[in-house]
What we know:
The protein has helices spanning 24-38, 55-63, 78-83, 86-92, 173-183, 194-201, 218-221, 252-261; strands at 5-7, 15-21, 45-50, 67-71, 123-127, 131-133, 147-150, 162-169, 206-207, 214-215, 233-235. It is an alpha/beta fold. It has a single domain (5-272), classed as Spore Coat Polysaccharide Biosynthesis Protein SpsA, Chain A, CATH 3.90.550. α1 runs parallel beside α2 and α1 (24-38) crosses α8 (252-261). The longest helix has 15 residues, at 24-38.
Amino acid sequence: xxxxxxxxQVANNRHAYVTLAxxxxxxxxxLALVNSIRATGTSADCVVLHTSVPEASLQPLRDxxxxxxxxxxxxxxxEFNATHARDALHARAAFTKGNKPPFHTPLDNFAKLxxxxxxxxxxxxxxxxxxxxxxxxxxxxxxxxxxxxPNVYESLADFHRLNSGVFTARPSEATFTQMLDRLDQPGxxxxxxxxxxxxxxxxxxxxxxxxxxxxxxxxxxxxELWSWDDIHILHYQYEKPWQDHDKADRLxxxxxxxxxxxxxxxxxxxASLPAPA
Length: 277
């Protein structure tokens, strides 16, 4: 196992879905994600990289069949850490389209780069812990590095930016080393943390259909783009489905389907859900 990673179990497959949990909130999200992935019938591993997660939040993930790997944050410089701390980053690049939850810490986002150290896998698909899988996505393991869906949730003008909540990768220590060399340079500022960095590192990224990373705000901002029959991965950007928030009533069908995978209600068939208003 590579430096900075401590796995509880050995790999059982050459392919893996990987997510990152950095606290109890995201561990709950990861549980819903793992349950949703398992419901698709895949034989791929479900890996949860985790940092500051209490033991009580890890056991449900073990019970769900996740492969748990404890990880350290990246060994970045004091200047880098100060620049990308929550208050400093939001002061320079405030989120104006939605509300980031209080448990979100921007520096944690860079830990997902450690998936390139998972060299026991031939191919991985990374999915943020605030997402669920609605259809089998195993074909993505055959896609090249680096594929991601566009960051579309407000207008078609967003198609030029990727969203790093879902992407394909080929683990490689050489790639990981190159990333660290590029990541932490004097004066650097990654405006949207790992998302901005990955678009810079993979400038010729391949675009996935939006249905492989359907952002929840599409529900009310671009309802003509929504199709339950086509959505493979649903991503709850900004406000999380386990929070009380001011958009909850508008997003109720999406929250209800998440609750089913989190064990907080019945599992719903997307085909039974309404179309956007």
